[in-house]
Amino acid sequence: MSAYVIIDVDVKDQARYSQYMKKGAPTIFAHGGEPLVRGGKTEVWEGHWNPKRMIVLKFKSIDEARQWYESSDYNEAKKIRLKAASANIICVEGIEEI
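Structure (tokenized):
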């Protein structure tokens, strides 16, 4: 079952975050991921959520998403992100395909 990594990032240091994107993006593809959303306009329709920068990644399963997130190559990029931004990150299973 597909899994979606949903990330709300609050960038504090744009220059450093740009380094993260250059290093982190290839790791998504290397682990079978597919970016579906990266930045772009966000509209809040209900509630008090104020997302900063939304990212949605699709993987074949939660296990594959976790393998990407815990991989040594992404871990190197993550070290940069942790210095450049704060984030809320979840992974959720999609619906079964018909």
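Helices lie at 14-30, 62-69, 72-84. The beta strands are 3-11, 34-38, 53-59, 85-93.
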